[in-house]
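ARCHIVE ENTRY
Sequence with per-residue tokens
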Amino acid sequence: MDQMARKNLSWTPRGDTALLWEFLPSDHSRQTHSFGQAVAVLKRYPVAETPVRVLDLGCGTGSSFERFKGDSRPISWIGIDIAESQEVNARVVKGYPLCTYDGMSLPLKSGAIDLVYSHQVFEHVRKPELLLSEVQRVLKNGGCFVGSTSHLEPYHSRSYWNFTPYGFCSLLKAAGFSSIVVRPGIDGFSLLLRRLLALAKLSGLLEPFFIRESPLNVSLEASLRLLRTDVRKRNAVKLLFAGQFCFGAVK
């Protein structure tokens, strides 16, 4: 074993990385997307007659309905959002099971949901701590909460906040969640460039990088692998520069 490999094996987290360490996954450091995280959770459920109850929190246009229905397991999907937003106003009526709420209290029974999915919603939530406690309430014991939110992303669509990964994990923990994990999404520089390109109506050029590795993430991954950096440390470095990050937690 060479000197660099021994150094990485003996490395211990310090500073900001140490604060985030318990939430960092060790299986891989790839850029992730919230829907991919949701699919991974669904795969844990056996294919059975009883449907998996999925709540799309902040469903916007309701586009996840068809995507979830494409899974091999029977899915009972509910979409919920506030009465009016840029995304809600863009809906096309298709008969999806949609409902509205006040942004704080979920009109659902306690322990009614298997999986809560929330794609890029919490940066728009006025009182995130209240809503997180509601998510925890409506989930079944052992139910999962997965999604993504903003870290280094420009203001958009009435957004209130940008969360640090550590800050959002702390909110999840305070709400009573366990097995909390955060993963890097698209990098922040790509989102800044996308916002600039939007002024010239060219933001679509960067849309593919929400799904596949964005340019900075590619560079970081290659460099950190060359240095034989630990997987969790790679995640920590990529999260430093993440425009968005994904999260997963269990009730």
